[in-house]
Amino acid sequence: xSWESKTDLLSQSVRGxxxxxxxxxxxxxxxxxxxxxxxxxxxxxxFKPEAVFSATGTAGLxxxxxxxxxxxxxxxxxxxxxxxxxxxxxxxxxxxxRKTYGKLASYMLGWAQTVIYxxxxxxxxxxxxxxxxxxxxxxxxxxxxxxxxxAAVFIMLMNFLGAKIAGSFQAVTTICKLVPLALIIIFGLFxxxxxxxxxxxxxxxxxxxxxxxxxxxxxTMFAYDGWIHVGNIAGEMKNPKKDLPKAIxxxxxxxxxxxxxxxxxxxxxxxxxALAATATPAADAANLIFGSIGGKLITIGILISxxxxxxxxxxxxxxxxxxxxxxxxxxxxGWFRKLGKTAVPYNSGIxxxxxxxxxxxxxxxxxxxDMLIFVIWIFYTMIFFAVFILRKREPGLVRPxxxxxxxxxxxxxxxxxxxxxxxxxxxxxxxxxxxxxxxAIGLPIYFYKKNKGHINE
Length: 457
Hints:
This protein is an all-alpha fold. It is about 75% helix and about 0% strand.
């Protein structure tokens, strides 16, 4: 997912959770559309084909997983946007959960983001960055862990220099995700080779249809992640009732089409079995399309894009524990609240970095991303339920925008969320168990702080 827009949205969120942020209604449809597309498209589409086609076993079922992921994402975006428009407070998910379920739910989201979501994203992307470096220079896999740690440390240190430097770097990396994406789609779709692209059969004997589709769907959701934040701009839109749903539907449909096109381009160059067998599908496809030199240039573009994505997660991630510490919700909150000379919460950054490095030692890109998607989708599904709860509990709440085709769209989003969570529990019990354990560790901390009078209901 991209962080050019998302970083701004989440930085506002962190500030707004603990204070008031006045905004102006200046955003029109086109700006909202660009925010939707720019927030979601990112690095996942370059690396998740391995997990998708490994899980599904066929081109047809793999593409179906990308389509279902898009449909669930669109329904989720339309559903969450009702809360965004009705509760136009900066803070996003944390505010919706607090208003609907109370402070415990919002605290658990912040805790999960601190110990799982952001560190796992930084770790997973650092691993894939290092994998790309090893592939580019033809070195052994033994360099992957050291290079991944070096990348995470370098980006964290750069962020310690201040938000302006990190933000400038973020802007420079923006175009680097679009160039390889466009080139692979354009040239891949017209590639003349001996690969036969077939949609059928949809499934094979050693890949049961439902569980294979479920695992493939979970893999796609990492590439679609980021959609929850597009509704954060609802309070700043001129006409959210009309423009927000249109921006979400057109924007997320466009993202789904782009993802389908690049995966079809991959499949025009490499069979599904080959995509399932490589950790660098985009680089391998680029080598086949453009030759060795052209493939390396595309790979460099992808590397810069991934580096920018890691930077985006770092910029936002280090501010989550800092924001929680402002309300004294963490152990050693005074330590977490400390800011450096550049107004960066460096102690929060150190903790996020240490957790990320521990996760990097696993060396598992797909397992880390599946774990973080499992955990965050528990909270996403709670957001979808919140639409029903608030409609019943607060019928008088002003809703400038209401989810269309209610209750069908929210039900699809809820069923999709439940399917993602339950499927991960059954097909990846270790990943799910680790995610639940790390999340649950936050519970005794919350009740301890509450009993000490630090958290008021």
